[in-house]
Each structure stands twice: as structure tokens, then as C-alpha cells.
From TrEMBL:
Transmembrane annotation, as ranges: none
Disulfide bonds: 1210-1225, 1228-1240, 1235-1253, 1247-1262
Main location: endoplasmic reticulum
Bilayer topology term: Single-pass type I membrane protein
Species annotation: Arenaria interpres
PANTHER family, A to Z: LOW-DENSITY LIPOPROTEIN RECEPTOR-RELATED PROTEIN 5, VITELLOGENIN RECEPTOR-LIKE PROTEIN-RELATED-RELATED
Protein name: Low-density lipoprotein receptor-related protein 5
Gene Ontology molecular function: any one: Wnt-protein binding
Location of the protein in the cell: Endoplasmic reticulum; Membrane
Residue stretches of each LDL-receptor class B repeat: 43-85, 86-129, 130-172, 308-350, 351-393, 394-437, 438-480, 610-652, 653-695, 696-738, 739-780, 1009-1053, 1054-1096
Signal sequence range: none
Length: 1264
């Protein structure tokens, strides 16, 4: 047996048995097991642990483990046993070093040596002579004494360096020494015959002699029937020379032999990454870690004594979990809509589980198995934390440490809520109920007090108010309150009446919640205990009655016990909430528990998926969630202004919406993918939208100068006006069964109806104050009225038989009936999306495949291709794409997240990635056009510290991509340099930097191996050209420039274009700088960017908020392409990539073989080069560190050896690692002799009797 302190384990294997495996005996709860002793008679292992400061015992297989000593131990180390007399001995080298002995059953403990002792390390017993030997590593001696510590004698003195462990055999003493790294021996009585047995050991630790003499057999009372003990039979020095003992934390029965089945009262403890249990039955309070996986940030903990489950919350995996008391049977119960579940409570009678969540600010409940979830309280909670239940009285209590801290109570179903305490509170973290005395205790981490109050809110008193720096977990059992303290890192307890306190555990970090509980004893009962109170789902016992309740989405029948899934209900938006009212059970309205709704406007649903969709005109988003409020997600987040109309195409699984701000009607898949603009011309404030996917038509109302109702195909084509003599028509609704349209007219306050062609108009109601929202279901219409604050219903044909459904409602925007009959029928898109790659759009008698904006339908008219040539333009916090002269779709904002301050943009047509400079974080990022890969794979960043908001060392200004080498060139304002990165984010290095240089705008002409940049030197701006490695610099222009802000190259045309923001003109020249001409110099106010697409040169004007273009060759036909775009910052054109031309470029394949920079030469071959800090090696491909060798030395090409004397070059003996000193050696000149191995020497040295060649060949064959 041996201990392993780094693996924190005690292990075993068999000696002299081949193939026997190493097994762990003890692994949990060990930190530094420094001493180990085997009781060969009682078959036990005893060990010390200098970190936990405990001495423990267990059976040889690790079972029935028990803590023997846990007090007054400081640094226990060596341990030795004398089973014949029932004694154990150990050394302690802590603050007060000593050697102690005690009975092996932990009786009769006594200090036997405490003088002239400092670091007592080794310890062994001479069983024959009954002597105790020990080594002291600081005082450098080995002493011995009688087993009671008397008659102390020196054995070896003064000359030891650092003895560690010792053992003996016969007359010889053996010990290990840390400093000499050896094993030494001497005579055990005299200390003579000192000798070194074995040396040069790595780190000799413990030592034992294996010999039968060391473990003689004798009979003990434990041999027969384990001494009658149920678990441990431990030897003892006192009559009857043994005693029965139990595993840690378990008590003996009164018979003194049998152990109880386990601990009866335990303290359960949540630490950040583990759960522990501590028995309260025994005084040692040993914490045992439960073997449960994947605990990442446990916070709250509770226990159910009926089934024996521990319940806990985890803030990191965002889940509520449970497991048995021994750690087995772990299950995850709740994972959705869990943010910061800080409090948890078990109703052990009704079998329900309650929790608080400071992220969602709710108190919720489920059954103990995680089913039937229901939100009990979601209003006016700020930071709810601790929660406790009283199932006997029917109350729950919780703390809230928000802005105005308070302790509240309510019935167990969340009703009859009231505040108990709201004065003199700070952070009420802990809460505990004394059910027998009807008192409520709490611990406050800010006022640093423990207080108590009667459960009715009277008689507030302070129990404890000193040394309580930060209470967190808090629990009560019997007469004691237990709590964890974050700052003291301790668990303490206080007597609830006497206020005396003691520490349970000290110095344990990351303490969270805790729960003191009886393991099996159950307190109290109520009527929910019997058959769940007759309820089908949730049973709540309240002071008034037993109440049945339903989880979200179910409704209670009139028997008030059974929950059913309702067929139909009204759903409506009301500012920051979306409500539902069951149309069958006449239950009052319920807010769907959605997070993050600000101003919901239009509403629709997808019955097959059980989801609702809504637009938010304040957040400018379209979102969706399940009907129970879970899984809220934004579907469309970009390019919306006032999305006030929206409808779900439940057959094609598409989402249509109308935006009165952008004057567009758009479509996308239900998850927001493949967005396309359907109608954007001749639209005047489109407002309400309705779909008839069976027939392939969509209908909308317009509220502009001439309000009207319009019909078009669902692909946006073939629009016709159906109704033009109408006011502002709202909430257009289709009666699919009777094929009629319904709408409310806000200008006449009427509800009207027509057939599907806008004819046979009928007034359904004309006596209403202010009808607004409208829907139809079966034989009824339902509408909302803004003046009456109500929802009413009437017969759909006559408008008679009016019934009030709901009153007291605020500004209901949209209303609809959620029912499967509203989404029936079939069309060609239902099957397999009509085999369309992107969108399947219904049209009368068929369908058409559609593509995302700017994507084009392939000739096979099923799949879509991404646009090959287009313009990208950036605003401060948006990047848009447009295709000039495209009649199919307008410009669109790309769904790229996290844009704060876009300064420049570029595009890699190979991987189809957009790159941009983020001026707020000073980094370069990238994303696809659908927004993916922006942050997920870590944005491509060109700086070392992306977490700083302002990074002074790096400040990217402009960027330009070399598509052939997959590199990105960027200018830096902070270091005034030009730098190169690979597109995967690796830095290549700096290529240009000079004392007076200030490079800003940059464009790479990789086709010809050059880059062009503006150099904004003080009062003398220049436009320069250089090779891609920064060499061959030449200034193209110094005159006629004030502030050139943007450059662009047209390689086919062989032209460079630039725009000067102060001269307000656009000029061009040849790539060499010749033939400079002005293209445009009138009416340009604040030019920012420049680019070439096709035959045109485009630029943006920030002040005029527009994009303009001219013909690039002559500057003719100036036209405005796009106006009213605020905060323009950049523009970049993407031309279709010619793959043949691409492959022909010398750098396109494997970077031309270059390790760093590849430059295309005029003859179509690659030239490799390096950034400033590296040099090109002899192979002309690879860059390496520059040499540091002196002129009279030779530099090896690669390898560990750098420099060798020049004389060794070509001497026939390779000295460089790579043998480069013997490569391409010269042929000797006429006045030289060439040695055999290639070295050259002066010819007159041949045969002069002295050896000059390294290979001695100059003195060979001299006779001939």
C-alpha cells in the first residue's frame, strides 16, 4: 500500500505477482496523505493527512472509512502501529511539534515527546525491544525512547542532513535522506557502522523493511465474528482490548456493536464545483464530496426526505438538477428559460419544486420530476434569492436584494402576496423557517446580521450581529441555524435561543448554499398529500383551500381539478406584453411569459410548431417564441423601421412583413434566413398584411395619401388595387371558409367586409367608438376597441349578438385566434419546400422558387447562387449590399452583429467573407453575408488585446486584401506603418515604416505585385507606390494634394483613382503615375470612399448622404445611385472572380512556395520576400531570423549552430547542423592546391612537411 500526494490517493498492488494491477483504495477527501500504516492483525489501514489535519482508518479495501482524530492536529506526518498493545503513534511537525500516541480505537490520546523536537519526520517501532525511534530533519538526529516517551536516548546526532523516513530490521536502522538522496543504515543501539546503502535516488520518501519479523501474528478479540461489530472492529489498549466503531458520521446503536443505517441528520453543502454532505450526528463534521459529474457553478440546494433526493441549481449550465444522497441517479430536471436560479425549495408534501431566478426575475414551480412548469410570480421582482416553504400552513417566503430589499410572503400558489419586512435590509441572502415555532430567520450580507421575526411579521429581533462579513447560504435544523460565509470561507452555526456559536468547517472557499435536514424524518402534511389533492397536474395547499393549477399552455376545466390543452384562444399584443385568453374554459387573460418585449405590434402564429411571431416597433425586430413563452429569439434584427404588418405563411414556412418606415414588403424563412424584398416600388405606408397560401395571394392595406387595399401574388408580382374608396384599413383578416375579407376602418370607425375581389362590400358595425384590431374565427368576429379598452365578439355576417370578452385593456395593437382551423389547406410548397433551395413562394395555381436578396435563381430554377458582382457600403453601425441597375431587389442591410464604428470595408471573393475595421475596438473583423462567423470563430483580429475598448498600440485605419496570397494589408495610425496578416489571423509582420511616414489609405494591386498608399506627412501629403514587401518605394505625386482619403485600382484599365476630401475632386492616372487627369470636381461635399464596378466609378458623400457614380473612362453621365443614407463610412465593389485568371497568378497556389510574402513579377513568376524583422534564406523561399555572425564567420543556413569560423567553410568537414558549410564549395584557383575533401590552400604549402589540409592530404604522396 502507498499514498500518492499528487494524485491525492491511497493505492495498492500485489508484490511478486506478474501482471497484477494497481488499484485505488481511497481517492476522495484526501489532500496530502503524508503517513500510512497497516494494521496487519486487524486488517486495517491508518493514515495521516497534513492538509485536512485528520487521522483516519479504513478496511484494507477502503470500506468503512472513519475519522479518528480531527482536533489539535497541525501537520501530522509519520504514523506507526503496535497492534499487540493496541497503540498507534504519530509525529506532528506543526506549530508545536510533538509525538503523540493513542489507542488504535482513538482512546487515551497523549503527547509523549514535546521537548527538543522540531521537524519529527520518520517514525518506527522496535517491536522486540518495545522502543520508539524517530528522526528529526531540522535538529539532524535520530533518537529513541520507551513507548511511553521515557528514557530518551541519542542514536545518531548532528551529522544528518535531512532524514525523512526510517525503519529497522534486526539490529540495523535504515533511513532515507532528502538532501543526500540516499538510503543510510547504522546500528540501532549505538549508531555505529554508519554506511550508505544506495545513492543517487531521485527523491527518496518512505521506507519499509518487508520481513515476517516486522509483522508477527498474535490472537485478538476482533478475529471471531469481527468482535461482534457490524462495521469496524478496532484494537484498543484497554480491556476488552477492542471497540466497535462506525464509518464517519454514523452513530453506534445503544448495543455498542451495531452501526445505524447512516447519518440521521446531515448538512448538505453546495460549493461552486461540487456538492458535499456533512453528518451532524458526530462531532468531527467531516465533509464528504458526492460523486456527481458536470457541476460547474452550484448555488442553491434543498432536500426531499421522502424520496431522498438532493435538489440543486447550477448557474453555469443553467439547470436545476437532482441526485440521491450518495451522488447516484443524477438527473437534470429543468434547463429552458433558466438564467440565474439563486434559490430553490422543495414542497415535500405536495411534491412540488419552487425556484427563484434573478435573471428572468421570476418565481416558478414544477413537480419534483421537472414536469408541469408554471410561473407563480413575475411582477415586481428585482433580485429574488432565497425561498422557503411552509406546506403545513400553505405559505411561501422569499427574499429580494434588489434596489429596495425586502422579504415577502404569499400563498403557495403565488396569490395573496404581501411584504413582511422592507426596512433596515441590505442583501438578505439567507432565509430559514422554524416550522415548530412559526418563526422566520434571515441572514443579511450587507447589514451583517442574523435576525428573526414571527411568520406574521411581528416581533423582529436581532439574534447575532458580530463577525458576519458575508452570509450567503442559510438553513435551520432543530436548535441550530447554520450559514456559509463567503469572506471567512467557513460554515458556522448558532443556537437559535442561547445564541452560542461554533465553527463547523473552516477555510473552504467557494461556499454557496447549504441545507441542514433530517435524512428520513418528514414534518407535517396537508390535503395535497392524498392523491395529489385530486389535481391532474399541480396541487397547491393554501390557508383557504386546496387549489389545483395548470402548467403554461393548459387550462382548468370547470371541475377545477383537470387541466386540458385548449383548442382555441385569443392572442393579443398590448405594448410590452402578449396575452392569451382561452375561448373554451372562459378563463381570464394570462400574459405569456416572454422576455424582452418592448412594444409589440403585429402578431401571428404557426400552429404546427406551436409558436407565435410578433413585431416590435420599439426594438425594430421580429421575434418568435413557443406559446408557453419559452425559447424567445429574434428572427429579423436588421433593416427594420416600423414593421407594423406581419403574417405567417404556414404552408411555405415563410414570414411576410410590411414596414411603413422603409416602405417595403419583405419575406424570409420562418427562422429569418433567405430574406428578400418583394415589393418596394409604388408602396405608400403599407400597414396590415394577410395571406391566402392555398390560393397564392397576399393582401395588404396602405395608409398613405390614398389609402387602399391591394392584392398581389405571394411572390410580390401582379399587384392590383381591390378597394380604393376606404380610410386607413387595419387588421385585414381573411375568412378562409366563406372567402371574405374583413377590416376595421380607423377613419370611419366601422368594421367592413367584402368578397376576395373587394366587391360586395358590407358594413358589419358602424356604431363603435374606436375599433382597432380584428380577427375572425368560426362564426364570429372579435375586435378590440381603444376607447372602450375592451375585446368584443359578434356574428360575422350581421354584427349582432355582441358579447364582451374582456374589459380594462390598454392599447391592444393586434388580435388573432390561435386555432388549427385558421391554418388549413394545401399548396405545392407544403411538400419538401417545393424542392426550392431558398424560398418557395405560392402563386395562383402553383409556386415560384425565390432567392435571398441579390442571389439569383439558377437556370434549373430550383437553387440559388450568391451574387458575383455587387457594391458593399458601410455606415457607422451597418454594412449594406446593393446591385446597381438591378430591377429585382433594392439595397439591403446585411445581418452582421456587433458593428459599432465601421471605418473601412473589403471583401474576399474566394471565401465570400466581408472584412472591416472596427474603429471602436481597433480590430479587424470578418463575417459572411448572412452574419455567421463574425464572432463565433473569433473575429479575425489584428491586435493583441481585443478586450480593451481603446487599444493604443494598434489602430487600424484602412485595409486591402491580396486574394492570391490570402493576406490582408492594413495601415496603422498608432505606429504609422503598413502591416500584413494572413487571412486566418496570423501576423506576418510589418513591411513599411519610416521616421516621417504616415501611411493611411491603402490599395493592393497584387496582380502586378504593388501597393499604393497615401502618405499624410505634415503639410506635404503624397501618393506613393511600393512593392508588396515595402521595397522599391517611389513617390507618384506630391503636388495638387491636400487630403487624399481613398484610393482604388482598376487593373484591367491600368488606372489608379483617388479622391481628395479638401480639394473635393476625383482624379486618375496610369499605374506608373503618368497621365494624371481630373474626372470630377463639382458639387462634392464630403467624399469618403471610392470604388470601381464594371464601367463605373462610385463614390460616397457623407454630407450629402448619397452614393454617386460616373463612367470611369471619361467621367461622363454622373448619376445619384442611392440617397438618404446617414453616416456613410466606406464603399467597396466586388467584381466576379475569373477563376482561370486567378489560377494563373504565380502566388495563387500555395503562396508561390513562399513562407511569408509572395510578389508577382512581370514575367509571371513569384518572388518571395520577408517582413522587416526577417531575412530571406539561401533557398530564396523561406524567411528566417537575420544572422548575428561577424564578417570573419560563416552563417549556417538553418539549425542550432549559427556561426562557424570562415576557415571551416569548405574544409571537407561539415560543422553546421544542415551541412550548409560544405554546400556549393568553390573549385580552387591556379595558385592553390585542392585538398581531397575540397578545401583550398596555397600551392606552396604542399609537401612542406607541415599538415595544412584538415584531411592531411597536402602531405600525402610527396615522394611521387
Amino acid at each position: 500500500f502507498w499514498t500518492d500526494v499528487s494524485e491525492e490517493a491511497i493505492k495498492q498492488t500485489y508484490i511478486n505477482q506478474t501482471g497484477s494491477v494497481v488499484q485505488n483504495v481511497i481517492i476522495s477527501g484526501l489532500v496530502s496523505p503524508d503517513g500510512l500504516a497497516c494494521d496487519w492483525i486487524g486488517k486495517k489501514l491508518y493514515w495521516t493527512d497534513s492538509e485536512t489535519n485528520r487521522i483516519e482508518v479504513a478496511n484494507l479495501n477502503g470500506t468503512s472509512r472513519k475519522v479518528l482524530f480531527w482536533q489539535d492536529l497541525d501537520q501530522p506526518r509519520a504514523i506507526a502501529l503496535d497492534p499487540a498493545h493496541g497503540y498507534m503513534y504519530w509525529t506532528d511537525w506543526g506549530e508545536t511539534p510533538r509525538i503523540e500516541r493513542a489507542g488504535m480505537d482513538s482512546s487515551t490520546r497523549k503527547i509523549i515527546v514535546d521537548s527538543d523536537i522540531y521537524w519529527p519526520n520518520g517514525l518506527t517501532i522496535d517491536l522486540d525491544e518495545q522502543k520508539l525511534y524517530w528522526a528529526d530533519a531540522k535538529l539532524s538526529f535520530i533518537h529513541r525512547a520507551n513507548l511511553d516517551g521515557s528514557f530518551r536516548q541519542k542514536v545518531v546526532e548532528g551529522s544528518l542532513t535531512h532524514p525523512f523516513a526510517l525503519t529497522l530490521s534486526g539490529d540495523t536502522l535504515y533511513w532515507t535522506d532528502w538532501q543526500t538522496r540516499s538510503i543510510h543504515a547504522c546500528n540501532k543501539r549505538t549508531g555505529e557502522k554508519r554506511r550508505e546503502i544506495l545513492s543517487a535516488l531521485y527523491s527518496p520518501m518512505d521506507i519499509q523493511v518487508l520481513s515476517p519479523d516486522r509483522q508477527p501474528y498474535f490472537h485478538t478479540p476482533c478475529e471471531e465474528n469481527n468482535g461482534g461489530c457490524s462495521h469496524l472492529c478496532l484494537l484498543s489498549p484497554r480491556d476488552p482490548f477492542y471497540s466497535c466503531a462506525c464509518p464517519t458520521g454514523v452513530q453506534l446503536e445503544d448495543d455498542g456493536r451495531t452501526c445505524k443505517s447512516g447519518a440521521e441528520e446531515v448538512l448538505l453543502l453546495a460549493r461552486r464545483t461540487d456538492l458535499r454532505r456533512i453528518s451532524l450526528d458526530m462531532p468531527d463534521f467531516t465533509d464528504i464530496i458526492l460523486q456527481i459529474d458536470n457541476i460547474r457553478h452550484a448555488i442553491a440546494i434543498d432536500y426531499d426526505p421522502v424520496e431522498g433526493y438532493i435538489y440543486w441549481t447550477d448557474d453555469d449550465v443553467r439547470a436545476i438538477r437532482r441526485a440521491y444522497l450518495d451522488g447516484s441517479g443524477a438527473q437534470t430536471l429543468v434547463t429552458t428559460e433558466i438564467n440565474h436560479p439563486d434559490g430553490i425549495a422543495v414542497d415535500w408534501v405536495a411534491r412540488n419544486l419552487y425556484w427563484t431566478d434573478t435573471g428572468t426575475d421570476r418565481i416558478e414551480v414544477t413537480r419534483l420530476n421537472g414536469t408541469s412548469r408554471k410561473i407563480l410570480i413575475s411582477e415586481n421582482l428585482d433580485e429574488p434569492r432565497a425561498i422557503v416553504l411552509n406546506p403545513v400552513m400553505g405559505y411561501m417566503y422569499w427574499t429580494d436584494w434588489g434596489e429596495s430589499p425586502k422579504i415577502e410572503c404569499a400563498y403557495l400558489d403565488g396569490s395573496e402576496r404581501r411584504v413582511l419586512v422592507n426596512t433596515s435590509l441590505g442583501w438578505p441572502n439567507g432565509l430559514a423557517l422554524d416550522l415548530e415555532k412559526d418563526k422566520l430567520y434571515w441572514g443579511d450580507a450587507k447589514t451583517d446580521k442574523i435576525e428573526v421575526i414571527n411568520v406574521d411579521g411581528t416581533m423582529r429581533k436581532t439574534l447575532l450581529e458580530d463577525k458576519l462579513p458575508h452570509i450567503f447560504g442559510f438553513t435551520l435544523l432543530g436548535d441550530y441555524i447554520y450559514w456559509t460565509d463567503w469572506q471567512r470561507r467557513s460554515i458556522e452555526r448558532v443556537h437559535k435561543i442561547k445564541a452560542s456559536r461554533d465553527i463547523i468547517i473552516d477555510q473552504l472557499p467557494d461556499l454557496m448554499g447549504l441545507k441542514a435536514t433530517s435524512v428520513t424524518k418528514v414534518f407535517g402534511t396537508n390535503s395535497c398529500a392524498e392523491n395529489n389533492g385530486g389535481c391532474s397536474h399541480l396541487c397547491f395547499f393554501t390557508p383557504q383551500e386546496t387549489r389545483c393549477a395548470c402548467p403554461i399552455g393548459l387550462e382548468l376545466l370547470s371541475d377545477m381539478k383537470t387541466c386540458i390543452i385548449p383548442e382555441a384562444f385569443l392572442v393579443f399584443t398590448s405594448r410590452a406584453a402578449i396575452h392569451r385568453i382561452s375561448l373554451e374554459t372562459n378563463n381570464n387573460d394570462v400574459a405569456i411569459p416572454l422576455t424582452g418585449v418592448k412594444e409589440a405590434s403585429a402578431l401571428d402564429f404557426d400552429v404546427s410548431d406551436n409558436r407565435i411571431y410578433w413585431t416590435d416597433v420599439s426594438l425594430k425586430t421580429i421575434s418568435r417564441a413557443f406559446m408557453n413563452g419559452s425559447s424567445v429569439e429574434h428572427v429579423i434584427e436588421f433593416g427594420l423601421d416600423y414593421p407594423e404588418g406581419m403574417a405567417v405563411d404556414w404552408m411555405g414556412k415563410n414570414l411576410y412583413w410590411a414596414d411603413t418606415g422603409t416602405n417595403r414588403i419583405e419575406v424570409a424563412r420562418l427562422d429569418g434566413q433567405y430574406r428578400q424584398v418583394l415589393v418596394w416600388k409604388d408602396l405608400d405606408n403599407p400597414r396590415s398584411l394577410a395571406l391566402d397560401p392555398t390560393k397564392g395571394y397576399m393582401y395588404w392595406t396602405e395608409w398613405g395619401g390614398k389609402p387602399r387595399i391591394v392584392r398581389a401574388y405571394m411572390d410580390g408580382t401582379n399587384s392590383i388595387t381591390l378597394v380604393d374608396k376606404v380610410g386607413r384599413a387595419n387588421d385585414l383578416t381573411i375568412d378562409y371558409a366563406d372567402q371574405r375579407l374583413y377590416w376595421t376602418d380607423l377613419d370611419t370607425s366601422m368594421i367592413e367586409s367584402s368578397n376576395m375581389l373587394g366587391q360586395e362590400r358590407e358594413i358589419i358595425a358602424d356604431d363603435l367608438p374606436h375599433p382597432f384590431g380584428l380577427t375572425q374565427y368560426s362564426d364570429y368576429i372579435y375586435w378590440t376597441d381603444w376607447n372602450l379598452h375592451s375585446i368584443e365578439r359578434a356574428d360575422k355576417t350581421s354584427g349582432k349578438n355582441r358579447t364582451l370578452i374582456q374589459g380594462h385593456l390598454d392599447f391592444v395593437m393586434d388580435i388573432l385566434v390561435f386555432h388549427s382551423s385558421r391554418q388549413d389547406g394545401l399548396n405545392d410548397c407544403v411538400q419538401n419546400n417545393g424542392h426550392c433551395g431558398h424560398l418557395c413562394l405560392a402563386i395562383p395555381n402553383g409556386y415560384r422558387c425565390g432567392c435571398a436578396a441579390h442571389y439569383t435563381l439558377d437556370p434549373n430554377s430550383r437553387n440559388c447562387s450568391s451574387p458575383a458582382s455587387f457594391l458593399l457600403f458601410s455606415q457607422k453601425s451597418a454594412i449594406s449590399r446593393m446591385i446597381p441597375d438591378d430591377q429585382q431587389s433594392p439595397d439591403i442591410i446585411l445581418p452582421v452583429h456587433g458593428l459599432r464604428n465601421v471605418k473601412a470595408i473589403d471583401y474576399d471573393p474566394l471565401d465570400k467573407l466581408i472584412y472591416w475595421v472596427d474603429g471602436r475596438q481597433n480590430i479587424i473583423k470578418r463575417a459572411k453575408d448572412d452574419g455567421t462567423q463574425a464572432s463565433l470563430h473569433g473575429p479575425f483580429t489584428v491586435m493583441s488585446t481585443p478586450n480593451q475598448s481603446q487599444n493604443p498600440e494598434k489602430q487600424p485605419h484602412d485595409l486591402s486584401i491580396d486574394i492570391y496570397s490570402h493576406t490582408l494589408y492594413w495601415t496603422c495610425e498608432a505606429t504609422n506603418s503598413i502591416n500584413v496578416h494572413r487571412l486566418n489571423g496570423e501576423s506576418i509582420g510589418m513591411v513599411l515604416r519610416g521616421d516621417h511616414d504616415r501611411p493611411r489609405a491603402i490599395v493592393v494591386n497584387a496582380e502586378r505585385g504593388y501597393m499604393y498608399f497615401t502618405n499624410m506627412q505634415e503639410r506635404a501629403p503624397k501618393i506613393e507606390r511600393a512593392a508588396l514587401d515595402g521595397t522599391e518605394r517611389e513617390v507618384l505625386f506630391t503636388t495638387g494634394l491636400i487630403r487624399p482619403v481613398a484610393l482604388v485600382i482598376d487593373n484591367k484599365l491600368g488606372k489608379l483613382f483617388w479622391v481628395d476630401a479638401d480639394l473635393k475632386r476625383i482624379e486618375s492616372c496610369d499605374l506608373s503615375g503618368a497621365n494624371r487627369v481630373t474626372l470630377e470636381d463639382s458639387n462634392i461635399l464630403q467624399p469618403m470612399g471610392l470604388t470601381v464596378l464594371g464601367n463605373h466609378l462610385y463614390w460616397i458623400d457623407r454630407q450629402q448622404q448619397m452614393i454617386e457614380r460616373v463612367e470611369k473612362v471619361n467621367g461622363y453621365k454622373r448619376t445619384r445611385i442611392q440617397g438618404r443614407i446617414a453616416h456613410l463610412t466606406g464603399i467597396h465593389a466586388v467584381e466576379e472572380l475569373d477563376m482561370e485568371e486567378f489560377s494563373a497568378h504565380p502566388c495563387s497556389r500555395d503562396n508561390g512556395g513562399c513562407s511569408h510574402i509572395c510578389i508577382a513579377k512581370g514575367d509571371g513568376t513569384p518572388r518571395c520576400s520577408c517582413p522587416e524583422h526577417l531575412v530571406l534564406l539561401q533557398n530564396l523561399l523561406t524567411c528566417g531570423e537575420p544572422p548575428t555572425c561577424s564578417p570573419d564567420q560563416f552563417t549556417c543556413a538553418t539549425g542550432e549552430i549559427d556561426c562557424i569560423p570562415m576557415a571551416w567553410r569548405c574544409d571537407g568537414f561539415p560543422e553546421c547542423d544542415d551541412q550548409s558549410d560544405e554546400d556549393s564549395c568553390p573549385i580552387c584557383s591556379a595558385s592553390q592546391f585542392q585538398c581531397e575533401k575540397g578545401q583550398c590552400i596555397d600551392a606552396h604549402l604542399r609537401c612542406n612537411g607541415e599538415i595544412d589540409c584538415q584531411d592531411k592530404s597536402d602531405e600525402a604522396d610527396c615522394d611521387s
